[in-house]
Amino acid sequence: MAPTSTQFATSRTMGIYDPLQQFSMWDDVFGPNLSPITSNHIMIPEVDARLANKTEYSSQGSLGPSADSPPTKNITDKSQRRLAQNREAARKSRLRKKAYVQQLESGRVKLAQLEQELERTRRQVKLQYFLKGGLLQTGNGLLSSNVINPGILSTPLGTFYLCRGSNARCDEKFWVVWVHTGIATFEMGYDLWVSEQRKKDDELRKVLLTHTSEIELRMYVDIGLNHYTDLFRMKADAAKVDVFYLLNGLWRTPVERFFQWIGGFRPSELLYILMPQIELMDTQLMKVRSLRQSCEQAEEALSQGMDKLQQTLAQSISIDIMGPASYNTQMNCAMQRLEDLELFLNQADHLRQQTLEQMSQILTPHQAAKALLALGEYLQRLRVLSSIWSARPRDPRNLIP
User: Fold this and answer.
1) Are 339 and 273 members of one domain?
2) How many CB atoms neighbour CB 27 within 10 A?
3) Over 90: is that where the pLDDT of 352 sits?
4) Same domain, 208 and 231
5) Which residues form the domain of 131?
6) pLDDT tens column, 195-240
């Protein structure tokens, strides 16, 4: 019978798995401290010892990454998505903050308007006079004796602020024009509106020069449209007091009155002015042309209604020489006709408001912002032109002495 060592040699030659061969391979890894295997009696304890050494080595090696291991990714896909979400949330937060600041600013302006309106409602009238040569003359001498200084008048009704008329042509006479407090409030509110409009135009111009998102541009467009809505609301309140004041354009400059149509701008002419300032696509151009045609039809209907009202009013106060006296009846009928003027003014302002809103829906936010800026610049230039015209040099021979 062959010896045992011969059987082990045969098994190694045949390639059968031998744990001794595996442990001998670990000798090179763990170092020369391991003793070589000399007999079969110590095989199992030696295996346990080496397994314990391997476990200890593995536990020590797991305390930190190996210096030779490849670098891991610093940011995973999940982290990138989270960072993108955080950036988007921060951007929306900035937009909300900006909108909140603008609301606070708008509230501050409205609060100032209310405070000034409250101050004006304490007075019953506002006096407007035309002054020449610094002399105040009246039939009864009541007002001239109560003048504190130019622009302020003290009466038994209270202290009133006076304003000078720019178109005065008088001969050292003092006319007192009684103006309702509601009209005085409108004049004050309109001055604030014009001042605020300039600020909004400057801000919109700066926004268009920067790379602003569509959402933020739309927010600025909505703020601009709401500003015009505030003007229409103020006009509606003033029309309840004196509709002729608004229809005649006394609250506007002379050049603005030259282009006036029923107390404001003509919507179709506004579209003619704005269209060359904006690059429109074919579909947008068709919609704008359709809107302009609708505006022209509505304008024609309102103009015909005004003409019809004028004819009816003239007929209602016509004199019947041969008929019975009906003066009071005619005046009452005419007063009822005049009340329709307020309705026409409100309809004209409604058409103007709808035109602005329809244009905003047709255009992109960037185009709508440019259109609002062009409209504000156009109205401002009309006011500037009127100021230049009023300050032009005049021939002294044409002045009334």
Assistant:
1) yes
2) 15
3) yes
4) yes
5) 126-179
6) 999 999 999 999 998 878 889 999 999 999 999 999 999 999 999 9
Would you say residue 88 lies in a domain? no
Strand partners, 268: none
Neighbours of 2 (CB within 10 A): 8
Residue 27 lies in a domain: no
What percent of the chain has a predicted confidence (pLDDT) above 70?
Answer: 61
| Same-domain pairing of 229 and 378 | yes
Which tens digit of pLDDT belongs to each residue from 86-121? 999 999 988 888 888 888 877 777 776 676 666 555
- The amino acid present at 378, given as its one-letter code, is Y
Contacts of 51 (CB under 8 A, 6+ apart): none
pTM over 0.85: no
Alpha carbon distance 37, 22 (integer Å): 12
Q: Are residues 333 and 356 in the same domain?
A: yes
